[in-house]
Amino acid sequence: MVKARKYVVKKYFEGLPKRSDYEIVEEELPPLKDGELLVKSEWLGVDPYFRAYNKFFPVPYDQFGYQIVSMENPIEVTWKVPDLGDLSPAVAIGVAGATGISAYFGFLEICKPIAGETVVVTGAAGAVGSVVGQIAKIKGCHVIGFAGSYEKVKWLEEDLGFDKAFNYKTVDVAKVLREAAPSGIDCFFDNVGGDLSNIIMSQMNKFGRISICGYISSYNDEHLPKVTIFQPLMVLKQLKAEGFIVRRWIDRWPEAIEQLVSWLKNGQIKSREHVTYGFDNVIDAFVGMLKGENYGKAVVKI
């Protein structure tokens, strides 16, 4: 028998998740059936949606993906790791994985950017936002990012090629946007929600497009915050806003992976992983990501 360790959520989170909300369970896996695969994890990803979906399931429930060994049906395996060459294997769950694919389809299919347009990205130093901004530059757009520290702002501008980036905690957002985007904003990729998003929307051009990937600003709130209504902006500026879940395009994932890996290999996209070591430290990585400690994709090396 093969033994597997996994994280089980035993109580609903209150605010930031805590170690006491989890239990590490060891279980014996049943014998493999014909056609099944025994999979051993080398890298695990931690993502904001693990927090957002917490109360969608009755407790206790297995935390998605937080398991060292698992059994899989090959028919249900989403994708096979592509040839990454000299790239880190962690890229397969980052830029060339679901987060990069979210950036690819969520931006290109919903925002439909045109060269010369102005694009704003919130959560721009995170796993998805950092890729969105780089894709926007590839498509010839003027790119503005918002992140949560001076160091992240510097990384976005100096390393990833954002035209301008700002620490939303220390600036007058409306003022810096008027200066950085005097002709208005055409596309907005939102990972954050809340007041920041409303301010950005107020400076969008007519027929602007908004892709809503997440709302991390309120994931840890027990009650959703009240914000200024946005319907007048939507009507007067004739904006289009659309939320998405990346599995919508699952039949096209190979297309995205091929293109993302190509951009990585030729240097048009840069990948950065925030690495935590050890299965026992998964919760530290998860909470750190929710607190904004990561640059790019937060991953755990088992």
Quick synopsis:
The protein has 302 residues and is an alpha/beta fold.
What does this structure look like?
The chain has 2 domains: 106 residues, Medium-chain alcohol dehydrogenases, catalytic domain (Quinone Oxidoreductase, Chain A, domain 1, Alpha-Beta Complex); 150 residues, Rossmann fold (3-Layer(aba) Sandwich). The protein is built from 9 helices and 14 strands. A 6-stranded parallel β-sheet has the order 9-8-7-10-11-12, sandwiched between helices. Helix 2 crosses helix 3 and helix 2 packs across helix 8. The longest helix is centred in the last third of the chain and has 13 residues. The model has no long low-confidence stretch (mean pLDDT 92).
Low-confidence stretches: none
**Overall pLDDT level:** 92
Strand order of the largest sheet: 9-8-7-10-11-12
Assign the CATH architecture of the largest domain: 3-Layer(aba) Sandwich
Number of DSSP helical runs? 9
* N-to-C CA distance: 21 Å
The whole-angstrom Rg is 20 Å
Helix content: 25-40%
CATH-wise, what's the superfamily of the largest domain? NAD(P)-binding Rossmann-like Domain
**Main β-sheet description:** 6 strands, parallel
Structural class: alpha/beta
